[in-house]
Amino acid sequence: MAQRLALQRLLSLPARRPLASHGRAFGTSAGLKSTFNVQDGSDFQDRVVNSPKPIVVDFHAQWCGPCKILGPRLEKLVSKLEGKVLMAKVDIDDHTDLAIEYEVSAVPTVLAMKNGDVVDKFVGIKDEDQLEAFLKKLIGA
After folding, report:
1. Residue 43's CB: how many other CB atoms inside 10 A?
2. Where are the transmembrane segments (predicted)?
3. CA angle at residue 40 from 37 to 46, to 5 degrees?
4. Is 67 a catalytic residue?
5. CA 131 to CA 141: how far, in whole Å?
6. Is the domain covering 35-139 a CATH 3.30.450.20 domain?
């Protein structure tokens, strides 16, 4: 009986109006997207191998605990570089062929690429100072 009364009261409440919009959009810097997910092999070829900018490739997996720590840490540092370097995320379960091609035997594996060539690499988790040094070496800073 008490549940029925509570339900009747809830149903008799006036409908809520949506909050007024002030024309503001929430998000990061104006369209600058320094991190992207690789969709397939041709996407990897177009956006990573053929990129004019240096690229960090994060080979990861959904089930990987260290990947969940490293990924956001690396994304944050890449975004601070404001387009000097891009970050491609490759899920090894979705793109096994790329993982095999780039000899990824453990995750997380991070590659540094310039002009389509792997110029540096690390496996496992790193702290922010180590990641900053890795990125600075890639962009030549």
Report:
1. 15
2. none
3. 80
4. yes
5. 13
6. no
Residue 56's SS3 state is strand
pLDDT tens readout for residues 64-115: 999 999 999 999 999 999 899 999 999 999 999 999 999 999 999 999 999 9
Contact call for residues 55 and 88 (beta carbons, < 8 A): yes
Between 17-31, 37-51, 56-70, 86-100, the lowest mean confidence (pLDDT) is in 17-31
To 5 degrees, how large is the angle CA 88–CA 61–CA 47? Answer: 15
Q: Is 64 a catalytic residue?
A: yes
Sheet holding 35-37, edge to edge: 35-37, 86-91, 55-60, 109-114, 117-123
**Run of H or E residues at 110:** strand 109-114
Q: Evaluate the omega torsion of the peptide bond into residue 108 and state whether it is cis, within 30 degrees of 0.
A: yes
pLDDT at res. 57: 98
User: Which among 48, 67, 87, 107 is annotated as catalytic?
Assistant: 67
The residue type found at 119 is V
